[in-house]
């Protein structure tokens, strides 16, 4: 029955809709589990039934002696084919002799089917995401306003500036910013496409082959806009003797997106399918079209349209008090030579007046005419007048917008975003709006008379009217260089009309949002209250959902397996029904053994007693015979007429149950010889003793596990390895030192190895193994410290400079002391930017005089970023279990971001800065850098505190007496109920975004549905309240200039030994500039020079005011302001935009891998300062990682760790791309354990 149900499900391929989705009755994983359980149950029952069927068939044949067939050893082996499929290979003779029989064929088919049944069910029955066929339906969309309603658009523009603050311009200012952002972004991307075409030499003069329009909606939907109503420039020139560039760009209807997501349409969203689903919609709705007509004219041809060229003009023209001389003139200017080109004059309709401009624009400038000299409503166009360079060419351009019924809208949605496209003028498109409404309006009848009001703000936002004062704007300059001067399109440049159409495309989108899905407005008011009204439109939809039936062609052959299992079950059922007697199954090993040992020897098996049967032995036929109650096997070669009526082979009725009758062989045991009995008992006892020896293992023994890979090794892996005695802390130290040696000469991630590391590890191993004590989860775990964190051992603490080489710190830094108390092994010191990059602007990330240039491993000459680059590279390559860095302006977060690891900048004061080489106590923080969030949590708990550390009064602010166990917050469900905000106003303006910005923001947008699926409540545009002040008023360098000048001498004064005699900043400057290894002046010292030049101290009112203002900029102006305003737990951003406000506020940030730059990414050189080419480091390149950050309130580490862990476990992006193979160390634990001690760490070539 069950196999029949499974077969029917596979054949029908039912779709489960909302039954299986993220929050449905079944999730995809639970459905897969149920399918596997069902398949396994069927497989087990099928094997049981088939074995019983074969056993009954063979038992019946062996008993019915008169049939003359008997059974063969090959046939008796058929049950093993099913229960032990490998026996078909090891005992292939059985297949050779029995497989060609009917019963053998069934057994062979059954064995193969049993092996593959679960796989077949998984392929054909387990629910998988599938595309259905397109199906036509009616969809509903919410309508709130008429098309191109400027009042509605401005009212819905998001701005923190309210009407109370700016009653006159708050709304127009906002909409102009929106137009500028969208228009420039779309235009810039369009020009990029042209650049690629030019570089590839694939430009065209054919309008149909030229790049389509481009737009981006809400940063996650890419829009493609085709050119429609295409005209022939050459033909127009022949008619009018004027170069006419006339284009029309059709945009899709963005309302389809809202309709697709509205629950009323019941379309499964990607988030409903764990972010994996996609869907496609073809909607029968009109498309907005922008029409741009540009005529190339001379000054003489422009005379009727330019006031300053009129005979009675007052010159020079006063642009602020322009006279209006048209009161006595015909507004149609008595007709003009250009009327038929632009459609002016009463014959073209009311209000079709030509424009009048006050003056001529200067070279590379443009003017806008967006009004008329009449109060009558009805103007449908705006006009632009542009002047080319030194050549006397002008372009007069008309822009207007209509709705066309010749298009449909196609929308494709996925978790990473969507694409929206207008499909136009396709005669085979049954979903074009004209197909739904045959009498739909088009042409002049569908022109929008409201759009010019929107276009007016748009043109000003793009500085298209700055020619009034000849402002020489870059946008106007580029546009006027695109003026056509010959009657054909330039294959290597877009035309001016095309460029204007693409720039104006954003106005079509804003005009269409919440607008009707028809060409008309049939409501009384221009906008609707109470949430709007639903309108319906025809559509064709296909949405992925979970379904059975398989998804790939290679899965189709599995139907044979499902049919075979069902068929064999049916055959067995029919056999059992028609043969109701139940015979002893002598193919069962126990029954066969009992029978065989009581059977006489046979010459047919001569020679196989010791090695078993082979070859011809398998095809000998055997029958059951009996002597009274003694039943035995006999070759068919012997026929003595006995046994046909054996009372021992009694039949039992099927109705009496399935228990096999007691074998008469058991009654013959008394006939064994005493010697045989003793041998049997001895054999039995030896077997029992052997079994006892095997099973009598200590209860603490753990099954063997392979040694973990050091590239992925976690603290939990280490704890498991220690507890199961797979490896020791000393083994880890040996392995890490050996791995460091493999990459040190090229990447320089480590500045010094602790010569005591191995002996410390061995001592900790002794504590754990001999004394059975541990100091905590980090007991025996190696940790690498940044070279500015003080340790009172044989290691130097130099901040990378020879000025501190040989100095002796008074004691361990509090962080190092805490780690030792937790049982960690201080493995060594990592490379860094010298003085944590507080020396001079002309320098490179990761360079220090002592350590050389640290480089990342994901690209050739990769910039390690930030001053904690050595710790990050070491963690990324598995050169240490854990690493520690310091962060003053992003030096933990930035290198963790670019090296694909986890970094935490803790709240200022959570980790003590005592005996850490300072920059400024106001901003310095010490934080973990690890491969996983949980490892960072373990490390932070060990490092933090204590509250009230005498060496750092900032620790007094710790709000808890006991440091939290941050690792306990690492739960996969950690994002459930999280209230997260996205302050998008920290992002660069779209027009200023680099390729790196775009990729990181796109990747960030792509994971937002995942955050929602993990239970997070995300507030988009939870913007920083005072971003302008943050961008313009922060005094980052002032805090560091004055702080370092004060805090550095304080650090030096506490040293137990100072071999260079440097005591303050002036000494340090002089010493550095005169010590050759410090590479001055190639690497500058201007930070120190500026600091010494300033008269400010840490007590100066100006300094204190600047620090206070910086604190405001990091709290209420940005992070805390957004958290409070939107009631959030944390903020979430791409890491590149996360850290600087937190630096000012002293708030915690965690970064976790998000993605990698794609393979086509252009390489960007950077080095932290000065000329990037000098340092030759690459900060943006294919394969280089980038991360996602969570930012919390001060001392809110527990929550952001919880959020980051849940995201990390759901994505594991760190393992999607690996470092370059040549930089991946090959040493693993097993090699280090085999080689034993590695010798002196100095052999690594590290500085002494």
From TrEMBL:
Q: What is this protein's name?
A: Amidase domain-containing protein
Extract the Gene3D superfamilies matched here.
Answer: Amidase signature (AS) domain
Keyword ATP-binding in the entry? The reply is no
Q: Which of UniProt's keywords are assigned here?
A: Membrane, Transmembrane, Transmembrane helix
| Highest taxon listed in the record's lineage | Eukaryota
Query: Amidase domain location, by residue?
Result: 731-1200
Pfam families, per database record: Amidase
* Chain ranges passing through the membrane: 33-55, 97-117, 558-577, 675-696
């Amino acid at each position: 029955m069950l196999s029949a149900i499974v077969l029917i499900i596979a054949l029908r391929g039912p779709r489960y809709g909302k039954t299986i989705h993220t929050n449905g009755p079944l999730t995809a994983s639970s459905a897969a589990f149920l399918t596997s359980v069902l398949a396994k149950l069927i497989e087990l029952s099928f094997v049981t039934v088939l074995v019983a069927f074969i056993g009954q068939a063979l038992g019946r044949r062996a008993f019915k002696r008169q049939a003359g067939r008997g059974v063969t050893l090959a046939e008796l082996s058929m049950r093993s084919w099913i229960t032990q499929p490998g026996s078909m290979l090891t005992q292939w003779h059985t297949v050779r002799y029995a497989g060609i029989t009917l019963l053998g064929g069934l057994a062979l088919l059954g064995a193969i089917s049993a092996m593959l049944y679960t796989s077949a069910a998984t392929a054909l029955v387990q629910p998988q995401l599938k595309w259905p066929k397109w199906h036509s339906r009616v969809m509903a969309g919410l309508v709130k306003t008429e098309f191109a309603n400027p009042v509605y658009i401005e009212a819905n523009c998001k701005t923190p500036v309210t009407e109370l603050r700016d009653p006159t311009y708050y709304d127009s200012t906002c909409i102009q910013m929106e137009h500028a952002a969208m228009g420039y972004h779309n235009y810039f991307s369009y020009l990029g496409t042209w650049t690629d075409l030019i570089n590839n030499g694939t430009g065209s003069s054919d309008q149909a082959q030229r790049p389509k329009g481009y737009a981006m909606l809400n940063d996650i939907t890419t829009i493609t806009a085709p050119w429609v109503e295409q005209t022939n420039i050459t033909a127009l020139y022949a008619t009018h003797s004027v170069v006419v560039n006339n284009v029309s760009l059709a945009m899709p209807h963005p309302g389809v997106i809202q309709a697709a997501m509205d629950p009323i349409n019941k379309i499964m969203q990607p988030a409903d399918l764990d972010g994996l689903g996609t869907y496609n919609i073809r909607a029968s709705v009109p498309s907005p079209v922008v029409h741009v007509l540009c005529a190339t004219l001379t000054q003489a041809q422009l005379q009727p349209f330019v006031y300053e060229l009129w005979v009675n003009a007052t010159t020079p023209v006063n642009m602020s008090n322009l006279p209006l001389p048209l009161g006595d003139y015909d507004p149609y200017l008595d007709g003009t030579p250009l009327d038929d080109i632009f459609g002016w004059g009463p014959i073209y309709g009311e209000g079709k007046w030509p424009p009048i401009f006050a003056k001529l624009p200067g070279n590379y400038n443009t003017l806008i005419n967006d009004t008329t000299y009449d109060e009558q409503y009805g103007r449908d166009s705006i006009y632009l007048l542009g002047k080319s360079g030194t050549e006397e060419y002008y372009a007069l351009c008309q822009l207007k917008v209509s709705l066309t019924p010749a298009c449909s809208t196609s929308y494709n949605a996925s978790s990473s975003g969507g694409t929206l496209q207008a499909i136009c003028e396709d005669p085979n498109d049954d979903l074009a709006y004209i197909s739904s409404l045959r009498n739909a309006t088009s042409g002049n009848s569908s022109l929008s008379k409201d759009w010019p009001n929107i276009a007016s703000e748009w043109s000003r936002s793009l500085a298209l009217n700055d020619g009034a004062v000849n402002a020489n704007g870059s946008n106007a300059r580029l546009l006027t260089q695109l003026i056509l001067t010959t009657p054909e399109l330039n294959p290597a440049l877009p035309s001016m009309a095309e460029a204007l159409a693409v720039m104006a495309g954003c106005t079509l989108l804003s005009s269409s949002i919440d607008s009707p899905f028809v060409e008309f407005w049939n409501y009384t008011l221009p906008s609707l209250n109470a949430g709007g009204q639903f309108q319906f439109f025809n559509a064709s939809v296909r949405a992925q959902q979970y379904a059975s039936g398989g998804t790939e062609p290679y899965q189709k052959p599995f139907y044979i397996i499902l049919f075979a299992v069902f068929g064999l079950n049916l055959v067995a059922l029919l056999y059992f029904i028609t043969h109701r007697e139940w015979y002893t199954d002598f193919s069962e090993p126990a029954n066969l053994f009992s029978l065989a040992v009581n059977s006489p020897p046979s010459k047919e098996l001569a020679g196989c007693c010791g090695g078993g049967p082979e070859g011809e032995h398998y095809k000998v036929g055997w029958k059951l015979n009996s002597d009274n109650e003694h039943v035995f096997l006999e070759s068919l070669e012997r026929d003595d007429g006995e046994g046909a009526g054996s009372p021992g082979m009694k039949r039992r009725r099927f109705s009496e149950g399935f228990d096999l009758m007691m074998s008469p062989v058991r009654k013959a045991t008394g006939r064994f010889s005493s010697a045989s009995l003793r041998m049997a008992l001895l054999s039995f006892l030896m077997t029992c003793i052997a079994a006892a020896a095997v099973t009598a293992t200590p209860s603490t023994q753990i099954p063997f596990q392979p040694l973990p890979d050091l590239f992925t090794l976690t603290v939990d892996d280490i704890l498991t390895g220690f507890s199961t005695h797979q490896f020791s802390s000393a083994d880890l130290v040996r392995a890490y030192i050996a791995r460091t040696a493999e990459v040190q000469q090229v990447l320089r991630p480590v500045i010094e190895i602790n010569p005591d590391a191995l002996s410390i590890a061995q001592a900790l191993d002794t504590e754990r193994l001999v004394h059975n004590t541990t100091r905590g989860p980090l007991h025996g775990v190696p940790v690498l410290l940044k070279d500015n964190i003080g340790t009172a051992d044989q290691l130097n603490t130099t901040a990378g400079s020879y000025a501190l080489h040989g100095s002796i710190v008074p004691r361990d830094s509090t962080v190092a002391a805490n780690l030792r108390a937790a049982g960690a092994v201080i493995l060594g010191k990592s490379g860094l930017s010298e003085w944590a990059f507080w020396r001079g602007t002309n320098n490179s990330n990761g360079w220090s005089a002592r350590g050389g240039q640290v480089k990342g491993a994901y690209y050739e000459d990769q910039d390690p970023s930030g001053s904690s680059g050595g710790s990050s590279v070491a963690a990324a390559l598995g050169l240490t279990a854990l690493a520690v860095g310091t962060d003053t302006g992003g030096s933990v977060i930035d290198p963790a971001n670019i090296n694909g690891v986890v970094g935490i900048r803790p709240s200022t004061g959570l980790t003590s800065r005592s005996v850490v080489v300072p920059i400024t106590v106001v901003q310095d923080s010490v934080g973990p850098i690890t491969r996983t969030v949980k490892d960072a949590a373990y490390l932070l708990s060990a490092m933090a505190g204590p509250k009230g550390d005498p060496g750092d009064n900032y620790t007094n602010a710790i709000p808890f007496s006991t440091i939290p166990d941050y690792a306990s917050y690492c739960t996969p469900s950690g994002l459930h109920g999280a209230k997260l905000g996205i302050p998008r106003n920290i992002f660069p303006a779209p027009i200023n975004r680099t390729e790196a910005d775009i990729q990181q923001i796109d990747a960030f947008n792509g994971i937002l549905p995942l955050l929602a699926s993990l239970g997070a409540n995300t507030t988009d545009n939870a913007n920083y309240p005072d971003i302008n002040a943050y961008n313009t008023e922060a005094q980052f360098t002032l805090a560091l200039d004055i702080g370092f000048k004060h805090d550095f001498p304080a650090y030096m004064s506490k040293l137990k030994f100072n071999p260079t005699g440097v005591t303050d900043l002036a000494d340090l400057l002089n010493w550095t500039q005169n010590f050759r290894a410090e590479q001055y002046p190639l690497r500058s010292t201007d930070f120190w020079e500026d600091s010494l030049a300033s008269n400010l101290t840490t007590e100066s009112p100006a300094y204190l005011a600047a620090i206070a203002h910086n604190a405001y900029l990091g709290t209420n102006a940005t992070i805390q302001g957004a958290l409070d305003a939107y009631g959030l737990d944390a903020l979430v951003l791409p890491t590149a935009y996360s850290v600087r406000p937190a630096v000012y506020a002293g708030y915690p940030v965690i970064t976790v891998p998000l993605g990698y730059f794609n393979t086509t990414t252009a390489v960007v050189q950077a080095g932290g300062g000065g000329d990037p080419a000098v340092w030759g480091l690459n900060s943006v390149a294919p394969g280089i990682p980038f991360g996602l950050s969570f930012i919390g309130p001060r001392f809110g580490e527990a929550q952001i760790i919880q959020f980051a862990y849940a995201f990390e476990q759901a994505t594991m992006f760190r393992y999607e791309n690996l470092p370059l193979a040549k930089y991946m160390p090959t040493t693993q634990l097993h090699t280090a354990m085999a080689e034993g001690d590695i010798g002196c760490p100095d052999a690594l070539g590290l500085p002494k």
